[in-house]
Amino acid sequence: MALNFPTNLLPKHDNASKSVEQFCKDTVMTIWHYHGGCQVGQVVDKDYKVVGVDALRVVDGSTFNFSPGTNPQATVMMLGRLSPSTNKHQNAIEAFLVVI
Q: How many whole angstroms separate alpha carbon 52 and alpha carbon 47?
């Protein structure tokens, strides 16, 4: 079984396809791993605390300042496991939500 992986399919001329939109629908693909739907730094601070909410931390792909360069699942899982242990010194009971 062979994979049909389109590469270098840019039109030879500007008018080679009906429209840029149709060209993109026909040829654009992604192998990227999306990290999340929130704007970095706007929902969760650098300590993974949810802005405006007491005693709640969130670790998910939206908290990455930059891409780890690989599938983010292992990185999110590691951060979810590491975050509670790095915050043991705090007296407040905080909930951790890990979204994968």
A: 13
Is-contact 62 43, C-beta < 8 A?
yes
* CB environment 43-63: b (16+ within 10 A), e (fewer): bbeeebbeeeeeeebbbbbbb
Tens of pLDDT, residue by residue over 11-31, are 556 565 566 777 777 777 766
What is the DSSP code (8-state) at residue 39? P
Q: Which residues contact 81 (CB under 8 A, 6 or more apart)?
A: none
pTM here? 0.48
Is residue 33 annotated as a catalytic residue, yes or no? yes
What are the residue ranges spanned by the domains of the chain? 34-100
Interatomic CA distance for residues 2 and 5, integer angstroms: 9
